[in-house]
Amino acid sequence: PPSPPRTRESGAKPPSALPTAPAAARPSSGAGGEPETEGPGRDTALLRHLLLKLRATGPVTVAEYMREALTNPGQGYYTRRGGIGESGDFITSPEITQVFGELIGIWFVSEWIAMGKPKAFQLVELGPGRGTLTDDMLRVFNQLASLLSKCDVSIHLVEVSPKLSEIQALQLTGGKVQSNPEDSSAYMKGVSKTGIHISWYRDIQDVPPGYSFYLAHEFFDALPIHKFQRTEKGWHEVLVDIDPEVPDQLRFVLSPSRTPATEIFIQPEETRDHVEVCPEAGVIIQRLASRIEEDGGAALVADYGHDGTKTDTFRGFRDHKLHDVLTAPGTADLTADVDFSYLRKMAQGRTATLGPIKQREFLKNMGIDVRLQVLLQNSHDTVTHKQLLHGYDMLMNPKKMGDCFNFFALLPHQRLVHPDKKHKRESKSPLPPVAGFSELLMK
């Protein structure tokens, strides 16, 4: 039988020994196991473009390589393929079971209630995949229509892939969308099957200001990372270059001297020997934190990652198998674990941060067990029963997604601490707990 679809958190291994000089041999991909070398199109158009670039400019950072491989306008993986789902290259939680998106939808409604039911909110999803997660949340909003009847809800999707935005439009509106003129911030608009307005944007900065809930599910892991290696002579950046022995192949090398990025991103107290930093993630967290501080709302981040402990997590996926990150660029998904300690630092105290907590803890706190029982009681065929139990196991089993995925939130400070905390005894009502995060890990 075919092996089960691969989720992107699988398969990292400890750091590989990197070459200490440009003449050293190329290391393995850092993805574990033998790198995949067979398969169609190893000599891709994007590889030819990169070889020309490297011959002209010399080695590039891993971040620049990732950016080209994933979002190059003509040949990037997300602009051309974007293979999410069983027929693609990896599978995500919303594709496994509807329960995941329903519980996320309930989280936002719960926070909306805790914050005093504002008259309007924007739900902003970063990198919405196939639109499945938004679709599941819209179903929850529709089921809670009487509760949300006086609230003006709108959906705002931040998506760079033309192919994926088409799939999202079909899923959410049945394809009833209109393109917007170039001078408009949203490049496409439509109305969901339940009558909620949806807009598409290329950048979070294009999303209009206002009270907003932000969702980033498996978004930060695909942003370009810089990689650094500690050597006897101090920190050096890991770069991508042409292999002199195999002229159409790429390899990792170390920068001959310290690069500007080394000076900026390596903290003096760093104890690891290999570090990955994602500056774009830092910039986006800063934007989210300042928006939440100014306009209110909350952000929920769900991704696989660590709290500043892991080292080499950069890996590729193609057809649900690990794929050498330097082979056939543009044909595989590239990804790295999210460093939540870095995200917390980049919020710069503008908002409170909660987590990261493991996915199985978060979903348990959100009532996944009760929801599963209701769905099992309401389904009368064995196939649906099996699917529901399989989906639950994928999300909750510590050996599958349960322990690898984490939830992390940004909330306004007043959501967790009464403005009148000096007179706390007299305050009328205690603040409601934040759903999903049983222990408030205030950092």
UniProtKB/TrEMBL annotation:
Disordered, as annotated region: 1-42, 419-443
Cellular component aspect of the GO annotation: mitochondrion
Listed EC numbers: 2.1.1.320
Compositional bias ranges of the Basic and acidic residues kind: 1-11
Keywords for the protein's UniProt record, in alphabetical order: Methyltransferase, Mitochondrion, Transferase, Transit peptide
Record's function text: Arginine methyltransferase involved in the assembly or stability of mitochondrial NADH:ubiquinone oxidoreductase complex (complex I). Acts by mediating symmetric dimethylation of 'Arg-118' of NDUFS2 after it assembles into the complex I, stabilizing the early intermediate complex.
Enzyme class: transferase
Gene this chain is encoded by: Ndufaf7
Record has Transferase as a keyword: yes
Reactions it catalyzes: L-arginyl-[protein] + 2 S-adenosyl-L-methionine = N(omega),N(omega)'-dimethyl-L-arginyl-[protein] + 2 S-adenosyl-L-homocysteine + 2 H(+)
Cell compartments where the protein resides: Mitochondrion
Protein name: Protein arginine methyltransferase NDUFAF7
Composition-biased stretches (Low complexity): 12-29
Gene3D superfamilies the record matches: 3.40.50.12710
Gene Ontology biological process terms from the UniProt entry: methylation; mitochondrial respiratory chain complex I assembly
Chief subcellular location: mitochondrion
Single annotated GO MF: protein-arginine omega-N symmetric methyltransferase activity
Database matches in SUPFAM superfamilies: S-adenosyl-L-methionine-dependent methyltransferases
InterPro entries to which the protein is assigned, alphabetical: NDUFAF7, NDUFAF7_sf, SAM-dependent_MTases_sf
Homology family: Belongs to the NDUFAF7 family.
Species the sequence originates in: Eolophus roseicapilla (Galah cockatoo)
